[in-house]
Amino acid sequence: MLEKIDLKKRMPKKDYANKFEELSAKVGALQRDIRDAGIPVLVVFEGFRGTLRGELINQLLSVMDPRGFRVYSTSKTTEVQRTKPFFTAFWQQLPNKGTISLYHRGWYFLKNEHDVGDPDEASSWYDISYEQINVFEKELAEENYCIIKIFAHISVKKQEKNLKKIDKLYGDSWETLAPGGVEGIDYKAYHKVYEKMLAMTDTTYAPLHVVPLEDMRIGVIAVFNIIIDSFERALRSNKHKTAGSLSIKKDSSVPDILSTFDLTKTISKSDYAEKLKEYQKKLKVLQYELYKKKISTVIGFEGWDAGGKGGVIKRFTSALDPLGYAVNPISSPNDWEASFHYLWRFWQHIPNAGEVAIFDRTWYGRVLVERVEHFANVDEWRRAYGEINDMEAQWAKQGIIVHKFWMQIDKDEQYKRFEAREKDPNKTWKITSEDWRNRDKWAAYVDAVNEMLYRTDTKVAPWTVVEANCKYYARLKVLETMISRYESVLK
After folding, report:
1. 287, 158: one domain
2. Half-sphere exposure of 440 (CA within 13 A, CB side)
3. What is the pTM of this model?
4. In angstroms, what is the C-alpha Rg of the chain?
5. What confidence category does residue 176 fall into, taking pLDDT thresholds of 50, 70 and 90?
6. Nearest-5° angle of CA 15, CA 17, CA 19?
7. Which of 41, 258, 315, 487 has the fewest beta carbons under 10 Å from its own?
8. In a 3-state reduction of DSSP, which class is residue 139?
9. 174 plus 287 within the same structural domain
10. What's the helix, strand, coil split of the chain in %, to 5?
11. 406 and 328 within one domain
12. Same domain, 339 and 190
């Protein structure tokens, strides 16, 4: 692909000035349209070292409203970043609706530096696949993100000339700006890696645009035209976007998993108290061992209203050092959270090395309440199974222990607990009219839960269904399950 790019073109200064003025006005107007339409945009600049991408980016930003964009770079990654899943920072830096995240090198830079053999990026953390990159971009595109990828191309002679110019300008500080400085940059090696990158990741939902930067004027005008075309296509697509179907017949291939669990299981109060003390003591020791080995944990709790999630979490965390865990209560997204991809807010709570992140309700809201209440259409919640499995697999690949619990009670038990809450002045805050209304959709939730368990119970992120009619039994089962999981990891 790179061989087909004409690097010989030049643009007279006068022609450039006229085109720059004309296109600048279009870019500014379209940025406002993008803002008004609520379309989030990612612009990623990649390319050969020495292409002077910084100058190119400055020219683009000079004609845009600075309140509508943020600029990031992955030229340097921190030790903390490398303790978390590869895409964590990129998820956390996503633009919200109507704004732009612009990368002076993004996820491709980290992949390419690894593939070219840079010793500083030799860690397996950098060794992601093109398939993983495509999945990341597709998930964003399907949630209406406009992804613009620009690759800056120059000849080897131009690179040498530019690098000498930069080296002369910055001197020794060039070493900190670009590891390796002028020496050791193998144009041919990068050329080979870039060709593969372009072939593997130039997709319809996130196309790669190669821009010649042998002449900066040619490059600037080319980028302006790419931005204009991409914004216009995003606006047309947004205008003609149709809502998907809201309802669908029950999938007969999904087994009735919940009915296989015996909810009569129980344990006496005295036995519970004895085992609870024993389990909490074990968890305290295991937390310390996991912390020493920098093994993190993500635990997700889902279940029926009044299913006992809060009580379980309280008994679990009571055994832990409070400096080593965080409980994240999840409710309906507020206006700010809803302006991002639905998974964005969960990536904000990835635990640090050796710590525990507990979620009281989770990312599974997309396939539970959003499915049943029609907040998400069929296309959205159907593809969420794959998106969630991919996210959890990324976490597990980083060495994070991922475990999920469904707190299962029957409808009669839920009714008893609802009534008890209404009669207890100290617990009335736990019950709302929404809880009573949700009981009318019990059958729909059973279908949703069964399909969730069926499609997202994986080896690396398993589900445990907890028989929770007896609170004592439920609490012990959760603690015992996590003790077993921890011990198997520490073997």
Report:
1. no
2. 5
3. 0.92
4. 27
5. low
6. 70
7. 487
8. helix
9. no
10. 55, 10, 35
11. yes
12. no
C-alpha–C-alpha distance, residues 222 and 236, integer Å:
21
Number of domains in the chain: 2
State the Cα–Cα distance between residues 82 and 85, nearest whole angstrom: 7
CA separation for the pair 68, 35 (Å, rounded): 8
- Say if residues 69 and 101 touch (Cβ distance below 8 Å): yes
In a domain, 63, yes or no: yes
How far apart, in whole angstroms, are the C-alpha atoms of residue 222 and residue 213? 9
**What is the residue whose two structure tokens read 């490398």?**
82
Domain that holds residue 128: 2-239
386 and 469 inside one domain? yes
Distance CA 111, CA 193 (A): 10
Can you read off the two tokens belonging to residue 370?
Answer: 């959003």
Which phi-psi region, left, alpha or beta, contains residue 45 (left: φ > 0; alpha: ψ -120 to 50)? beta
The single-letter code of the amino acid at 374 is H
Q: Which two tokens stand for residue 96?
A: 């919200």
Sign of the CA dihedral running 29, 30, 32, 36: positive
pLDDT for 314-345, tens place per residue? 999 999 999 999 999 999 999 999 999 999 99
Other beta carbons within 10 Å of 279: 20
| CA–CA separation, 269 and 444 (whole Å) | 34
> 180 pLDDT band (50/70/90 cuts)?
very low
| One domain, residues 231 and 271 | no
The CA-based diameter of the chain, rounded to the nearest angstrom, is 89
Q: Which residue has the tokens 């919940």?
A: 258
Specify the pLDDT at position 181.
Answer: 45
Q: The domain that contains 467 carries what CATH number?
A: 3.40.50.300
**Shared domain check, 67 and 8:** yes
Residue 247 lies in a domain: no
In this structure, is residue 145 part of a structural domain?
yes
- Give the pLDDT confidence of 359-407 residue by residue, as tens digits: 999 999 999 999 999 999 999 999 999 999 999 999 999 999 999 999 9
- Mean pLDDT, to the nearest integer, of 304-319? 97
How does DSSP classify residue 38?
Answer: T
Q: Under a CB-based contact definition with an 8 Å cutoff, are residues 8 and 113 in contact?
A: no
Closest of 80, 79, 140, 132 to residue 107, by C-alpha: 132
Q: 10 Å Cβ neighbour count for 423?
A: 9
- Within 8 A by CB and 6+ apart from 204, the residues are none
